[in-house]
Amino acid sequence: MPTPAIAVHGGAGRWERDPETLGRVQQVLREAVETGLRVLNSGSALDAVVEAVKVMEDSGVLNAGVGSTVDLSGSVSMDAGVMYSRTGRAGAVAYVKYPRNPVVLARYVMELTDHVLLVGDAADLLASRLGLERHPGPLERVRRMYGEAVQRIARGEVPQRFYSRSISLWLSKFPTGTVGAVAVDREGELAAATSTGGVFLKMPGRVGDSPIVGAGFYANRCAAASATGIGEFIILYHLSLRAVEAVCNALDVAEAAERVMADFTSRFGRDTAGFIVIDRLGRAYGAYNTQAMPWAYGAGGRIELRGL
Amino acid sequence: MPTPAIAVHGGAGRWERDPETLGRVQQVLREAVETGLRVLNSGSALDAVVEAVKVMEDSGVLNAGVGSTVDLSGSVSMDAGVMYSRTGRAGAVAYVKYPRNPVVLARYVMELTDHVLLVGDAADLLASRLGLERHPGPLERVRRMYGEAVQRIARGEVPQRFYSRSISLWLSKFPTGTVGAVAVDREGELAAATSTGGVFLKMPGRVGDSPIVGAGFYANRCAAASATGIGEFIILYHLSLRAVEAVCNALDVAEAAERVMADFTSRFGRDTAGFIVIDRLGRAYGAYNTQAMPWAYGAGGRIELRGL
Fold it and tell me: Which range of residues forms the domain containing residue B291?
């Protein structure tokens, strides 16, 4: 019987915040893994990744759920996706503003509808009809960051084009902080979930990789992955799909994952992405080409913090 | 120097309409190929697939652009995507209601923004700001079909669940009619484009495979593909990506494409999907597991109609 295991991440990027914030992030990752392990005692990998991501969405210290960043208009809009090997199905939502926990809504899309991806006001309407908890709006910290950015834009420190490459480069100074979880349960089934507030100052309506099957998340009976980074590149590369396929039946999970990461970097450059991947034997690895990607791993009561 | 070539499709599904409609569909496919070939005389593969898809969107006889079907609420909402090997970039829009030609908006997303996928009211706002032509609303034919469906639902002929598997099966009696184009230009660059009104009576906000890179469309320097069918399955399988990878460097394009189609069918059953694919030598093939998938091929002044 397989040993249940779970890995979670708090996003690839620059993690040069104060030590207090970093400590809090590690604390949240630990809580997410503890929650996931508790669920895995009796529940499925699907239950585990959703509950673990929920912990991170609720934390307010990562860019997902409550802690989500804002778009160019100052609004929170979020993307999330989930996939489960037992059914081979996936569910995802994008450009949603209503739910506090987009990952929960993504699971409902998978289980209550025939569809895989539901977006915009229609997805928000579903969240409200299902009675999901409502998002409280951007945190004070996020509102301040937005106010400062708007002032810098007004002072002409940022090119005035619609949504230019230069704005993206300027933005890359901020950590992304997307969250994700991958798990294997006692029955050897795997699941993956990813949730994000997206890129700070993105165009309203922009959808990144997090709700795209094979890009931001992927799970089959062999492995599961959750990605983070510049969503546009991850979509073009199908990073989670390629990570799962590389790790599938690999003798050395770390080596296989690093090979995928190196190939991605050769195409899109450094400081662009990262992912966590787990195989059906519970072997997990976090690969990233950024300064850091805090992630945590738990199995058999043991929890390890990595990537910082 | 490569010979420019283009292939277009009008959607996999049941094509049991009257001979007059079928004749009109073939006429539209021929016009789309003629337009594409004319563009390829001096323009790029990207120009060619966008113009060819535009012809099909404007035709009103296929489920895209002007001829788009409606969702459960009776509204037209459309998805489209485009990809170009020269830049390796892609652009897509989903759940858009404003533009008459979603494929044109998808191209703008690719060329004017840093993003790949833009959705909902925000994408519609971009379309309006760019001065794109506005969608005229559902055709009389589509409105009549919707009215009949609503009556059948009211009479209890369709299960009343939210959006159930049974509704989908009931729906499968209708042809889908998604449109797509793939082309190779004189410089050996490839492009793919796909556009659709989605599934008749879909949940509002549902996004299918058409705007998802690697699912509804994909192009690299080796081949390009456009898919059609049950979007949810195509998303889970990454049908266009797999078609491109299979055909890439294959000795026999038809055999490689049929192998992908057979694998897809073994997983999701018959009557589920189809695709067209073209390689850099201009060899094209249309594979489908449905009753029909009207498609057309053009190169060197010669045009062939197939798939019916």
Answer: 5-306
